[in-house]
Amino acid sequence: MNSISNLLTRLATHAAVLITVHATRGSVPREVGAWMAVWGDEVLETIGGGRLEWDAIAHGRTMLATAMDQHLPQPQPQRIVYRLGPNLGQCCGGEVELQFERVSVVDVPSLRARLLARDEPLALFGGGHVGRALVHVLSTLPLAITWIDSRDEIFPVGLSDRVQCEHSDPVQAAVPTLASASKVLIMSFSHAEDLDIVAACLTRQRERGDLPYIGLIGSKTKWASFRSRLTARGFSDAELDHVTCPIGIPGIADKRPEAIAIAVAAQLLLLQKTE
Predict the structure, then answer these.
(1) Residue 233 in contact with residue 222, Cβ under 8 Å?
(2) In whole angstroms, what is the distance from residue 70 CA to residue 48 CA?
(3) Exposure winner among 157, 170, 255, 259, fewest CB in 10 A?
(4) Cβ contacts of residue 144 below 8 Å, gap of 6+?
(5) Confidence of residue 153 (pLDDT cuts 50, 70, 90)
(6) Residue 41: enclosing H or E segment and its boundaries?
(7) How far apart are CA 187 and CA 164, in angstroms?
(8) What domains lie within the chain, and their CATH numbers?
């Protein structure tokens, strides 16, 4: 269960104060949209740590305790600007504007939509060992994951709110319906399926140009074979150069599913920095 799922689950029984980075200026520890939830006995997620976070937690708990007094009206969201200088014991030098709002079970539907709306789309083809390891790692990041396989009953239970499972047979039939700007990871149980998925992605890229990353698990030898077959299907060298194979940052020799998942997650984060 990821942080959003944990937040929504606990809100079913305990109200919280949601603290969100609303605006920033200069050097700051976290980006706009970063959030933290505060209860009387627990803190979930982070807005950057240090004295900034310590003071924000204290203010959130004061706001929460005040709201629990039934003789007072429900507090409205508040915004406070923190200057990250010597007075706050942090030397970043920038400013962070934080929004504080009390949230409870009645806010769960709107919060789910709001917090998940920032997630970037990613399509993962393949429910095998590496696919499962990737979902475990990637669902902790702000990604809206569509997990696709042609096999029935392949997906585990208890997945994050960020993961939507889809059965598609033939599996490549799911490619035209992917969200625009999806990053795609391909690792089905069959090389024949992998080839058809890559071809479908390249066809969509030719028509729409909206798949910024197409990653295929496998060796350089596998990609050389695929490249020859895809050339025979009419794809140009420039189109084939859009496929990343092998996937993951270079230099990681460990082939355990968990290691591959971490290497791929790192590659996606590096790609995010250059977009």
Answers:
(1) no
(2) 32
(3) 157
(4) 116, 119, 120, 121, 122, 162, 164, 179
(5) confident
(6) none
(7) 17
(8) 3-115 (no CATH), 119-274 (3.40.50.720)
